Amino acid sequence: MNTKGYAALSAGSDLVPFEFDRREVGAHDVELDIKYSGICHSDIHQAREEWGPAIFPMVPGHEIAGVVTSVGASVTKFKVGDHIGVGVFIDSCGKCVQCNKGLQQYCEEGMTGTYNGYERDGKTVAMGGYSNRFVINENYAVHVPANLPLDGVAPLLCAGITLYSPIKHWNVGPGKRVAVMGLGGLGHMGVKFAVALGAEVTVLSHSPSKEADAKAMGAHHFVSTKDPEVFKTHAKSFDVILNTVSAEVDINQYLNLLAQDGTLVVIGLPGKPYAVHVGALLGARRSMAGSMIGGIPEMQEMLDFCGKHNILSDVEVIKADYINKAYERTVASDVKYRFVIDGSSF
Ligand code: NAP
Ligand code: ZN
Ligand code: ZN
User: Fold this and answer.
1) Which of 34, 90, 97, 223 has the fewest beta carbons closer than 10 A?
2) Which of 39, 186, 250 to probe ligand 1 with, by most ligand atoms within 8 A of CB?
3) Contact, 311 vs 304, CB < 8 A?
């Protein structure tokens, strides 16, 4: 079916209007009108080949919120008119240990990404959410609570789940001192979830102008990392640090902010290796860990949590012709706090 979107035709080139065909709705598929599509920094990394060779033309986008317009004959999970979300993957093997645990993002055969990859037939290039419609197997989409507006919901499908999952895994809650590195799309969701779960929340930011926003989101403390002194005054202060920074940083400075037995969870993916001083780990039995998005059951849990606590992303809604400018502003940390494309503008 004919689909209108925006694509990068080669690495680093501006995105341009692009038409392509999606598959017809199969027995287990649902079709949706995309209402809003978030711009994740991962889209920029991939469109610019900052993570290695990529597939072009590339239609990025893996924060998709829409409305179901048709369902296949065997579909039971959705009906026409439902609000629906699609995230970073559209498929997985469905039978390995991780898939059986609902951790499809860690599928042993590899998850099937929403774009910049091939579908499980090994030949169809997956085209992402910067487009006006989508087709997906019902088992890889989630229900969006009816009380939530879809523009603020779209970023939950990647930024939201990517912070919710480690926050749950590392038991962030009452009595835990948690720091969020970087107040961008991911970071601002981390602040909202950690605050809602009752933790003591600090934002570590290199943008002093974001202090008022961080406090308005409920953060208890704001630390400007522009001042090198803060790495001394806040040494050994946090039980968990969630690193959402998209650029290279001196990770050792941040490891030293962990208290005894603390964990720094790497979430940001600048594309270059971190140089870790082992002394920064063993001096206080600290851990450095990683976390990648979340599986389908946890995505649903996260959205239900957002519905109950009225948690949304702070978004700036744009038209498709602003995507290239939005990329520039995101890279310059000038986003409050997620750009979301209006699906009717493709
Ligand atoms: P974003 O909106 O651009 O936010 C990144 C934030 O990092 C910026 O707002 C800024 O916050 C901080 N930052 C940027 N440059 C910096 C620098 N030079 N020094 C210090 N801090 C800097 O990006 P995002 O969409 O949240 O994504 C963040 C990262 O997570 C990206 O690398 C993305 O690919 C990755 N990601 C990972 C997963 C996963 O599953 N693990 C999922 C999605 C995205 P301040 O202005 O507050 O300092
Ligand atoms: Zn993402
Ligand atoms: Zn699997």
Assistant:
1) 97
2) 186
3) no
Ramachandran assignment for 166, one of left (phi > 0), alpha (psi -120 to 50 degrees), beta (any other): alpha
Does residue 210 lie within any of the structural domains? Answer: yes
Average confidence score pLDDT of the chain: 98
Q: Is residue 315 lining ligand 1, measured as CB closer than 6 Å? A: no
**E-state strands within 72-230:** 83-86, 89-91, 112-113, 133-137, 142-143, 177-181, 200-205, 221-224
Q: Indicate whether 323 pLDDT > 90.
A: yes
247 Cα–ligand 1 center, Å: 7
Asked if residue 303 is part of any domain, the answer here is no
Roughly what angle, to the nearest 10 degrees, separates helices 296-309 and 185-196?
Answer: 70
How far, in Å, CA of 236 to CA of 238, rounded? 6
What distance in Å separates the CA atoms of residue 112 and residue 120, rounded to the nearest whole number? 7
* Candidate from 333, 337, 339 with most ligand 1 atoms within 8 A of CB, to mutate: 333
The CATH number for 13's domain is 3.90.180.10
Look at residue 318 and give its three-state secondary structure: strand
Whether residue 48 lies inside any domain: the answer is yes
Residue 82: helix, strand or coil by DSSP? coil
Q: Which residues contact 85 (CB under 8 A, 6 or more apart)?
A: 64, 65, 66, 141, 142, 143, 144, 153, 154, 156, 157, 299, 303
pLDDT band at 272; cut points 50, 70, 90: confident
Rounded to an integer, what distance in angstroms lies between the CA atom of residue 290 and that of residue 65?
27
pTM over 0.85: yes
pLDDT digits (tens, 9 = 90+) for 78-88: 999 999 999 99
Tell which atom from ligand 1 comes closest to the C-alpha of 270. 32
Looking at the fold, whether 9 and 135 belong to one and the same domain comes out as yes
